[in-house]
Amino acid sequence: MPFDLSLLDKSPIAKGETASVALRRTIAYAQRAEALGYKRFWVAEHHNTHELASASPEILIASLAASTRSIRVGSGGVMLQHYSPYKVAENFNLLESLAPGRIDIGIGKAPGGLPLSTRALQSGYDQARRGDFASQLREFDAYLGAGNDQRQEGLAATPTPTTSSEKFLLGASVESAALAAELGWQFVFARHLNGDDVALASAVSTYRDLAQKTPIVALAVIADRDGNKARETAAGFTPIRVTIANGQSVTVGSEEQAAEFARQAGVTDYTTEKRQANVLAGNGGDIVAEIEVLADRFGIDEFILDLFNQGDSRLDAIALIADARDAAHTPRALSA
User: Fold this and answer.
1) How crowded is the C-beta side of 30, counted as CA atoms within 13 Å?
2) Over the stretch 90-108, which tens digit does the pLDDT of each residue have?
3) What region holds the Luciferase-like domain (predicted)?
4) Coil vs helix vs strand at 216
5) I want to staple 302 with a disulfide (CB 3.0 to 4.6 A). Which of 4, 84, 196, 220 is the partner?
6) DSSP code per residue over 144-166
């Protein structure tokens, strides 16, 4: 079945590079994606991570919107637990006013970093008044204009844009799918973080039943002209789910990161579980063929690709995928 392709970028900083170089590449990456017909270009939020430059999606979105003309730009996602819902709503209303009809609001539940950065981001925050994530998201949604009766009288997130941003909840569970449906938001299943296709099927079914809409699925991808090279690289990725004694858990990239998470959380009692990476790897045709299988199996009509390619190879990789997509979707003339 036909599907749209979008991109997620973390602005990775290659060895020996500066953050400025990495951010300029992200802008060039978005411009290339626009020329190739990708639908959206999102940027992530990561903290205290020297290999990634994308600590503040809203600031980067403003630069991307100014550097492109038609592609939708947005966050994948802003980690709402750290911030005032009111301030985040102001940021996105300002972005929508700068680039009407082109801004996507993607909100995530994860911390976007390890405990040290989480504590720093939330210092001075009254945790007792903060409420749970669902409460924060409902408050944020009200400031954007939905459920105005829930807002304090006379309080609005200004400026007020003349168009509405599209709103997306990023998650990997049935609970997230149900919350997105409750609020009338679009739902993105993070398969690039949770490769459990049983969980994917349950979340897709829940969201489709409640919202009467189809979710988007985020995928981890490595693409290379040499498909075997891409597959060899992908074999080295093994996500680790680390859980500490209070039940808090997070997915990290290695056992070393799991141990660092526990150290920063101030605990020695923790467990780890190797998760299935489910990285799509191969040449452009291989990637498109695997996406087509997922599209047909789950009835998905849009995928967001998180490319694990390094440096400028990301620009080449999205061209390989776009060419293969176009070839697969071009009607073939019937022979006489």
Assistant:
1) 28
2) 999 999 999 999 999 999 9
3) 15-294
4) strand
5) 4
6) TTTTGGGSPTT---SS--SS--E
Return all residues near 115 (Cβ < 8 A) that are at least 6 apart. Answer: 261, 264, 265, 266
Q: By the 8 A CB rule, do 142 and 131 touch?
A: no
Token readout for 190 is: 């993070």
What's the CA angle centered on 100, arms 108 and 218, to 5 degrees?
30
DSSP type of residue 62: H
> Hey, what CATH topology would domain 4-236+277-329 get?
TIM Barrel (3.20.20)
Query: Rounded to whole angstroms, how far apart are CA atoms 16 and 138?
Result: 43
What are the start-end ranges of the E strands in 162-286?
Answer: 166-171, 186-190, 216-223, 240-244, 249-252, 270-274, 280-282
Burial 286-314 (b: 16+ CB within 10 A, else e): bbbebbbebbeebebebbbbbbbbeeeeb
Q: What does the domain layout of the chain look like in residue ranges?
A: 4-236+277-329, 240-274
- Please state whether the predicted TM-score (pTM) of the whole model is above 0.85: yes
Q: Give, as one character, the DSSP assignment of residue 214.
A: P
Structural tokens at position 317: 């990789």
CA distance 299 to 283: 24
> Max alpha carbon distance in the chain (Å)?
74
The DSSP code for 80 is G
The bridge status of strand 249-252 relative to strand 240-244 is: antiparallel
Task: Spell out the alpha helix ranges (H) of the chain.
Answer: 19-36, 57-67, 85-98, 115-121, 127-130, 133-143, 174-183, 197-211, 227-234, 255-265, 284-298, 313-329
Integer Cα distance of 222 and 192 in angstroms: 12
Q: Strand, coil or helix: what is 331?
A: coil
In the chain, which stretches have pLDDT less than 50?
Answer: 332-336
Cβ–Cβ < 8 Å for 247, 255? no
Angle, to 10 degrees, between the axis of helix 19-36 and the axis of helix 57-67? 50
Amino acid at 231: R
Give the model confidence (pLDDT) of 27-64 as tens digits.
Answer: 999 999 999 999 999 999 999 999 999 999 999 999 99
